[in-house]
Amino acid sequence: MSKSSKRSLAAASGRRRVGRSGAPAAQRGQARLALASTASAEIGLWEGEVLAVADGADGVTVRATLASGASIEARCPAHVDASWLRAACALAPVPAAFVVARPSGRPLLWGIFPGAAHADARGDLVIRGRAVTVDAESLALTSRAAHLRLEAEGDVALKGRDVTSHARRVNRIRGGSIRLN
Question: How many domains does the chain have?
Fold first, then answer.
């Protein structure tokens, strides 16, 4: 039976449409309006700015000011790089969105929206437990047995168990044994 057939059948029988909550559609709509207009800390998505980042017993937390002027302390999720966020906050407050977790009622950082003022923010990255250092002047990649450093002037330093290299200018190779071509 199609949706329109069900609607017309319900209208003919005088029944009101009800949703999953068991409330008629009109009542659900009024409830949504009431929830949207409430300033309760239990629901909603709030705009604000992250001002500072701190490491705590519960993990990384951020200190922020909401658009309403209220100050909050919120948990920072793992996918937001705390090192970069610290550097960005040192330059300017970072626009962000916050939600409240249920049932704990704790504020959570939901997302960040960096602007032009944060373009120069640099921080150390940790990707899947591996440390990656990114700097405006150089790039360093390090693992347990290999190291790669790239300098702004074009210098490259590479250390590893087995190395294959190619250079436009001088290619200095140091190692226990060297095999060319």
Answer: 2
